[in-house]
UniProtKB/TrEMBL annotation:
UniProt source species: Stutzerimonas zhaodongensis
GO molecular function: fructose 1,6-bisphosphate 1-phosphatase activity; magnesium ion binding
Domain Fructose-1-6-bisphosphatase class 1 C-terminal span(s) in chain numbering: 201-334
Classification of source organism: Bacteria, Pseudomonadati, Pseudomonadota, Gammaproteobacteria, Pseudomonadales
Residues engaged in binding Mg(2+) 2: 112, 115, 283
Name under which the protein is recorded: Fructose-1,6-bisphosphatase class 1
Binding residues for substrate: 115-118, 211, 277
Catalyzed reaction equations: beta-D-fructose 1,6-bisphosphate + H2O = beta-D-fructose 6-phosphate + phosphate
The encoding gene: fbp
Length: 336
Protein backbone atom coordinates (compact mmCIF):
# COMPACT_ATOMS: atom_id res chain seq x y z
CA UNK A 1 0.00 0.00 0.00
CA UNK A 2 1.21 3.49 -0.77
CA UNK A 3 2.39 5.55 2.13
CA UNK A 4 0.08 8.05 3.75
CA UNK A 5 1.76 11.39 4.16
CA UNK A 6 0.58 14.05 6.59
CA UNK A 7 -0.93 16.00 3.65
CA UNK A 8 -2.91 13.00 2.50
CA UNK A 9 -4.07 12.22 6.04
CA UNK A 10 -5.30 15.79 6.45
CA UNK A 11 -7.12 15.81 3.12
CA UNK A 12 -8.82 12.54 4.04
CA UNK A 13 -9.81 14.12 7.35
CA UNK A 14 -11.47 16.94 5.44
CA UNK A 15 -13.49 14.38 3.48
CA UNK A 16 -14.44 12.09 6.33
CA UNK A 17 -14.49 14.43 9.29
CA UNK A 18 -15.13 17.89 7.90
CA UNK A 19 -11.75 19.20 9.02
CA UNK A 20 -11.86 22.77 7.66
CA UNK A 21 -9.38 23.57 4.90
CA UNK A 22 -7.84 26.45 6.87
CA UNK A 23 -7.18 24.16 9.85
CA UNK A 24 -5.58 21.68 7.48
CA UNK A 25 -3.36 24.43 6.12
CA UNK A 26 -2.46 25.53 9.65
CA UNK A 27 -1.32 22.02 10.63
CA UNK A 28 0.72 21.71 7.44
CA UNK A 29 2.44 25.01 8.14
CA UNK A 30 3.22 24.03 11.74
CA UNK A 31 4.61 20.69 10.49
CA UNK A 32 6.80 22.53 7.98
CA UNK A 33 8.12 24.78 10.74
CA UNK A 34 8.87 21.69 12.86
CA UNK A 35 10.89 20.24 9.99
CA UNK A 36 12.94 23.42 9.94
CA UNK A 37 13.44 23.27 13.72
CA UNK A 38 14.39 19.60 13.44
CA UNK A 39 17.01 20.54 10.87
CA UNK A 40 18.46 23.26 13.09
CA UNK A 41 18.47 20.98 16.17
CA UNK A 42 20.25 18.22 14.28
CA UNK A 43 23.09 20.52 13.19
CA UNK A 44 24.05 21.18 16.79
CA UNK A 45 27.50 22.70 17.18
CA UNK A 46 27.99 22.66 13.38
CA UNK A 47 25.11 25.10 13.01
CA UNK A 48 26.24 27.29 15.90
CA UNK A 49 22.88 26.75 17.60
CA UNK A 50 23.99 25.39 20.98
CA UNK A 51 24.28 27.47 24.13
CA UNK A 52 22.37 30.32 25.73
CA UNK A 53 21.50 33.87 24.76
CA UNK A 54 21.78 36.83 27.11
CA UNK A 55 18.02 37.19 27.51
CA UNK A 56 15.43 35.76 29.87
CA UNK A 57 11.80 34.90 29.08
CA UNK A 58 8.82 36.02 31.17
CA UNK A 59 9.26 33.00 33.43
CA UNK A 60 12.73 34.21 34.37
CA UNK A 61 14.41 31.36 32.45
CA UNK A 62 17.54 32.09 30.43
CA UNK A 63 16.65 31.58 26.76
CA UNK A 64 18.72 29.11 24.81
CA UNK A 65 19.65 30.04 21.24
CA UNK A 66 17.36 27.28 20.00
CA UNK A 67 14.44 28.56 22.12
CA UNK A 68 14.68 31.89 20.32
CA UNK A 69 15.35 30.42 16.88
CA UNK A 70 12.47 27.91 17.13
CA UNK A 71 10.13 30.68 18.25
CA UNK A 72 11.12 32.79 15.22
CA UNK A 73 10.70 29.88 12.83
CA UNK A 74 7.15 29.24 14.10
CA UNK A 75 6.19 32.93 13.96
CA UNK A 76 7.54 33.48 10.47
CA UNK A 77 5.97 30.31 9.10
CA UNK A 78 2.54 31.11 10.51
CA UNK A 79 2.09 34.87 10.27
CA UNK A 80 1.46 35.31 6.54
CA UNK A 81 -0.96 32.51 5.63
CA UNK A 82 -4.19 34.15 6.72
CA UNK A 83 -5.24 31.25 8.95
CA UNK A 84 -4.46 32.82 12.33
CA UNK A 85 -5.85 35.64 14.44
CA UNK A 86 -2.81 35.54 16.71
CA UNK A 87 -0.16 33.46 18.41
CA UNK A 88 1.21 33.03 21.91
CA UNK A 89 4.36 31.30 23.06
CA UNK A 90 6.42 30.40 26.09
CA UNK A 91 9.08 32.73 24.77
CA UNK A 92 6.90 35.86 24.39
CA UNK A 93 5.42 37.89 27.22
CA UNK A 94 2.26 38.85 25.34
CA UNK A 95 0.08 37.73 22.45
CA UNK A 96 1.76 38.04 19.04
CA UNK A 97 -0.13 40.27 16.63
CA UNK A 98 -0.46 39.23 12.99
CA UNK A 99 1.27 42.04 11.02
CA UNK A 100 -1.26 44.40 9.43
CA UNK A 101 -0.10 43.63 5.88
CA UNK A 102 -1.42 40.05 6.17
CA UNK A 103 -5.01 38.82 6.41
CA UNK A 104 -6.20 37.24 9.64
CA UNK A 105 -7.98 33.94 10.17
CA UNK A 106 -10.16 32.08 12.62
CA UNK A 107 -7.56 30.29 14.73
CA UNK A 108 -5.17 30.94 17.58
CA UNK A 109 -1.89 29.05 17.82
CA UNK A 110 -0.16 28.58 21.17
CA UNK A 111 3.21 26.87 21.48
CA UNK A 112 6.23 25.84 23.45
CA UNK A 113 8.70 26.27 20.60
CA UNK A 114 11.44 24.17 22.15
CA UNK A 115 10.56 21.92 25.05
CA UNK A 116 13.31 20.39 27.13
CA UNK A 117 15.80 23.15 26.48
CA UNK A 118 18.04 21.94 29.32
CA UNK A 119 18.69 18.88 27.13
CA UNK A 120 19.76 20.69 23.95
CA UNK A 121 23.43 20.98 24.73
CA UNK A 122 23.69 17.35 25.90
CA UNK A 123 22.16 15.89 22.71
CA UNK A 124 19.04 14.45 24.35
CA UNK A 125 15.57 14.55 22.73
CA UNK A 126 13.73 17.87 22.69
CA UNK A 127 10.52 18.92 20.95
CA UNK A 128 7.87 21.47 20.00
CA UNK A 129 4.39 21.43 21.59
CA UNK A 130 1.40 23.23 20.05
CA UNK A 131 -2.28 23.84 20.70
CA UNK A 132 -4.92 25.25 18.35
CA UNK A 133 -7.95 27.20 19.56
CA UNK A 134 -10.67 29.11 17.76
CA UNK A 135 -10.61 32.86 18.11
CA UNK A 136 -13.80 33.59 20.04
CA UNK A 137 -16.50 35.91 18.73
CA UNK A 138 -14.96 36.14 15.25
CA UNK A 139 -12.34 38.37 16.83
CA UNK A 140 -10.30 38.23 13.64
CA UNK A 141 -12.82 40.49 11.93
CA UNK A 142 -12.03 43.31 14.36
CA UNK A 143 -9.19 45.73 13.91
CA UNK A 144 -8.26 46.06 17.60
CA UNK A 145 -5.08 44.47 18.88
CA UNK A 146 -5.65 40.92 20.04
CA UNK A 147 -5.56 40.69 23.83
CA UNK A 148 -4.60 37.80 26.05
CA UNK A 149 -8.30 37.13 26.93
CA UNK A 150 -8.96 35.57 23.53
CA UNK A 151 -6.56 32.76 24.43
CA UNK A 152 -7.92 32.06 27.91
CA UNK A 153 -10.10 29.09 26.99
CA UNK A 154 -10.14 25.73 28.75
CA UNK A 155 -8.34 22.84 27.06
CA UNK A 156 -11.66 21.25 26.07
CA UNK A 157 -11.91 24.02 23.44
CA UNK A 158 -8.78 22.91 21.59
CA UNK A 159 -9.53 21.93 18.00
CA UNK A 160 -6.14 20.35 17.47
CA UNK A 161 -2.96 19.71 19.40
CA UNK A 162 0.31 18.01 18.78
CA UNK A 163 3.99 17.86 19.34
CA UNK A 164 7.10 17.19 17.32
CA UNK A 165 9.87 15.21 18.95
CA UNK A 166 13.43 15.67 17.74
CA UNK A 167 15.03 12.40 18.78
CA UNK A 168 16.68 9.50 16.96
CA UNK A 169 13.75 10.03 14.59
CA UNK A 170 11.80 13.23 14.16
CA UNK A 171 8.13 12.48 14.70
CA UNK A 172 4.93 14.51 14.70
CA UNK A 173 2.11 13.35 16.95
CA UNK A 174 -1.26 14.91 16.18
CA UNK A 175 -4.84 14.91 17.36
CA UNK A 176 -7.76 16.64 15.67
CA UNK A 177 -10.07 15.31 18.38
CA UNK A 178 -10.60 11.87 16.87
CA UNK A 179 -7.67 9.81 18.05
CA UNK A 180 -3.92 10.30 17.94
CA UNK A 181 -1.81 9.71 14.84
CA UNK A 182 1.96 9.51 14.70
CA UNK A 183 3.99 10.57 11.67
CA UNK A 184 7.71 9.93 11.14
CA UNK A 185 9.78 12.40 9.13
CA UNK A 186 11.22 10.79 6.02
CA UNK A 187 14.24 13.01 5.50
CA UNK A 188 14.82 11.89 1.89
CA UNK A 189 11.25 12.70 0.89
CA UNK A 190 11.01 15.69 3.22
CA UNK A 191 7.56 14.62 4.37
CA UNK A 192 5.94 13.27 7.49
CA UNK A 193 4.62 9.74 6.87
CA UNK A 194 1.88 8.09 8.93
CA UNK A 195 3.59 5.32 10.89
CA UNK A 196 1.55 5.06 14.10
CA UNK A 197 -2.20 4.90 13.64
CA UNK A 198 -4.72 5.39 16.46
CA UNK A 199 -2.24 5.25 19.29
CA UNK A 200 -3.57 3.91 22.60
CA UNK A 201 -1.99 4.37 26.02
CA UNK A 202 -2.15 1.10 27.98
CA UNK A 203 -4.49 1.56 30.96
CA UNK A 204 -2.13 -0.09 33.43
CA UNK A 205 1.58 0.47 33.81
CA UNK A 206 4.54 -0.22 36.05
CA UNK A 207 6.61 2.77 34.99
CA UNK A 208 6.57 6.30 36.39
CA UNK A 209 8.32 9.61 35.72
CA UNK A 210 8.95 12.35 38.27
CA UNK A 211 11.89 14.53 39.28
CA UNK A 212 12.72 12.73 42.55
CA UNK A 213 15.11 15.46 43.67
CA UNK A 214 12.08 17.53 44.67
CA UNK A 215 10.66 14.81 46.91
CA UNK A 216 11.03 16.69 50.18
CA UNK A 217 8.94 19.57 48.83
CA UNK A 218 5.91 17.55 47.67
CA UNK A 219 2.48 17.58 49.28
CA UNK A 220 1.14 14.62 51.27
CA UNK A 221 -0.87 12.85 48.50
CA UNK A 222 2.17 12.78 46.20
CA UNK A 223 4.44 11.63 49.05
CA UNK A 224 2.02 8.80 49.75
CA UNK A 225 1.63 7.77 46.11
CA UNK A 226 5.33 7.81 45.16
CA UNK A 227 6.14 6.11 48.48
CA UNK A 228 3.84 3.26 47.44
CA UNK A 229 5.43 3.04 43.99
CA UNK A 230 8.88 2.82 45.55
CA UNK A 231 7.75 0.17 48.05
CA UNK A 232 7.00 -2.17 45.14
CA UNK A 233 5.91 -5.71 46.02
CA UNK A 234 6.49 -4.89 49.68
CA UNK A 235 3.89 -2.10 49.63
CA UNK A 236 0.11 -1.88 49.17
CA UNK A 237 0.33 -1.83 45.36
CA UNK A 238 2.06 -5.21 45.45
CA UNK A 239 3.98 -4.56 42.23
CA UNK A 240 7.46 -3.33 41.35
CA UNK A 241 7.71 -0.08 39.40
CA UNK A 242 10.50 1.24 37.20
CA UNK A 243 11.39 4.93 36.89
CA UNK A 244 12.40 7.16 33.95
CA UNK A 245 12.92 10.94 33.91
CA UNK A 246 14.19 12.54 30.70
CA UNK A 247 13.40 16.13 31.76
CA UNK A 248 11.92 16.85 28.33
CA UNK A 249 8.16 16.63 28.67
CA UNK A 250 7.85 15.69 24.99
CA UNK A 251 10.19 12.76 25.42
CA UNK A 252 8.56 11.55 28.64
CA UNK A 253 5.06 11.88 27.15
CA UNK A 254 6.21 10.19 23.95
CA UNK A 255 7.41 7.18 25.92
CA UNK A 256 4.06 7.06 27.74
CA UNK A 257 2.12 7.23 24.45
CA UNK A 258 4.24 4.41 23.15
CA UNK A 259 4.28 1.98 26.06
CA UNK A 260 2.29 3.51 28.91
CA UNK A 261 3.47 5.15 32.11
CA UNK A 262 2.70 7.82 34.64
CA UNK A 263 4.10 11.37 34.34
CA UNK A 264 4.06 13.77 37.29
CA UNK A 265 5.13 17.34 37.84
CA UNK A 266 3.37 18.22 41.10
CA UNK A 267 3.35 21.60 42.76
CA UNK A 268 5.66 21.85 45.72
CA UNK A 269 6.26 23.91 48.80
CA UNK A 270 9.34 25.84 47.64
CA UNK A 271 7.26 28.59 46.08
CA UNK A 272 3.75 28.30 47.51
CA UNK A 273 2.36 30.77 44.98
CA UNK A 274 3.57 28.68 42.06
CA UNK A 275 1.25 25.87 40.98
CA UNK A 276 3.89 23.48 39.68
CA UNK A 277 6.37 24.06 36.87
CA UNK A 278 4.58 23.22 33.66
CA UNK A 279 2.51 25.77 31.81
CA UNK A 280 -1.20 25.14 31.21
CA UNK A 281 -1.72 26.69 27.79
CA UNK A 282 1.21 25.30 25.83
CA UNK A 283 2.39 22.26 27.79
CA UNK A 284 -0.32 20.72 29.98
CA UNK A 285 -3.35 21.35 27.72
CA UNK A 286 -2.01 20.05 24.41
CA UNK A 287 -0.40 17.04 26.10
CA UNK A 288 -3.58 16.29 28.07
CA UNK A 289 -5.68 16.48 24.89
CA UNK A 290 -3.34 14.00 23.19
CA UNK A 291 -3.21 11.66 26.19
CA UNK A 292 -7.01 11.66 26.62
CA UNK A 293 -7.49 11.07 22.90
CA UNK A 294 -5.23 8.03 23.27
CA UNK A 295 -7.32 6.65 26.14
CA UNK A 296 -5.21 7.97 29.02
CA UNK A 297 -6.07 10.58 31.64
CA UNK A 298 -4.67 13.90 32.85
CA UNK A 299 -5.43 15.80 36.05
CA UNK A 300 -4.01 18.47 38.32
CA UNK A 301 -4.55 16.05 41.21
CA UNK A 302 -7.91 17.59 41.94
CA UNK A 303 -9.34 18.44 38.52
CA UNK A 304 -9.25 17.28 34.91
CA UNK A 305 -6.60 19.47 33.27
CA UNK A 306 -8.74 20.16 30.19
CA UNK A 307 -11.45 21.68 32.43
CA UNK A 308 -9.16 24.26 34.05
CA UNK A 309 -10.27 27.79 33.18
CA UNK A 310 -7.03 29.65 32.39
CA UNK A 311 -6.49 33.00 34.08
CA UNK A 312 -3.31 34.01 32.32
CA UNK A 313 -1.24 33.02 29.32
CA UNK A 314 1.72 31.67 31.27
CA UNK A 315 -0.22 30.10 34.14
CA UNK A 316 1.27 26.94 35.66
CA UNK A 317 -0.51 23.78 36.79
CA UNK A 318 0.41 20.57 38.58
CA UNK A 319 0.37 17.70 36.07
CA UNK A 320 -0.44 14.00 36.51
CA UNK A 321 -0.91 12.26 33.18
CA UNK A 322 -0.64 8.91 31.48
CA UNK A 323 -2.09 5.46 32.06
CA UNK A 324 -5.61 5.78 33.39
CA UNK A 325 -5.38 3.44 36.36
CA UNK A 326 -2.43 5.29 37.91
CA UNK A 327 -3.79 8.78 37.18
CA UNK A 328 -7.05 7.80 38.86
CA UNK A 329 -5.15 6.40 41.85
CA UNK A 330 -3.11 9.54 42.54
CA UNK A 331 -6.14 11.77 41.87
CA UNK A 332 -8.07 9.71 44.41
CA UNK A 333 -5.32 10.29 47.00
CA UNK A 334 -5.69 14.05 46.45
CA UNK A 335 -9.42 13.80 47.06
CA UNK A 336 -8.75 12.22 50.41
P1 LIG B 1 11.06 24.07 28.77
O1 LIG B 1 12.37 23.55 28.29
O2 LIG B 1 10.09 24.33 27.65
O3 LIG B 1 11.17 25.23 29.72
O4 LIG B 1 10.31 22.90 29.58
C1 LIG B 1 11.03 22.11 30.48
C2 LIG B 1 10.07 21.36 31.33
C3 LIG B 1 9.63 20.01 30.78
O5 LIG B 1 10.00 19.73 29.48
C4 LIG B 1 10.25 19.01 31.71
O6 LIG B 1 9.33 17.98 31.98
C5 LIG B 1 10.57 19.78 32.95
O7 LIG B 1 10.69 21.11 32.56
C6 LIG B 1 11.86 19.32 33.60
O8 LIG B 1 11.99 19.96 34.81
P2 LIG B 1 13.19 19.65 35.83
O9 LIG B 1 14.39 20.33 35.27
O10 LIG B 1 12.70 20.25 37.10
O11 LIG B 1 13.37 18.16 35.92
MN1 LIG C 1 8.45 23.06 27.90
MN1 LIG D 1 10.31 25.63 25.99
Amino acid sequence: MSRVTLSRYLIEQTRSNNTPADLRFLIEVVARACKEISHAVSKGALGGVLGATETENIQGEVQKKLDVLSNEILLEANEWGGHLAGMASEEMDNAYQIPGKYPKGAYLLVFDPLDGSSNIDVNVSVGTIFSVLRCPGECFTQNDALGEEAFLQPGTKQVAAGYAIYGPQTMLMLTLGNGVMGFTLDRELGSFVLTHENIRVPETTSEFAINMSNQRHWEAPVQRYVGELLAGTEGPLNKNYNMRWIASMVADVHRILTRGGMFMYPKDSREPGKAGKLRLMYEANPMSFIIEQAGGAATTGTQRILDVQPESLHQRVPVFLGSKEEVERVTGYHQG
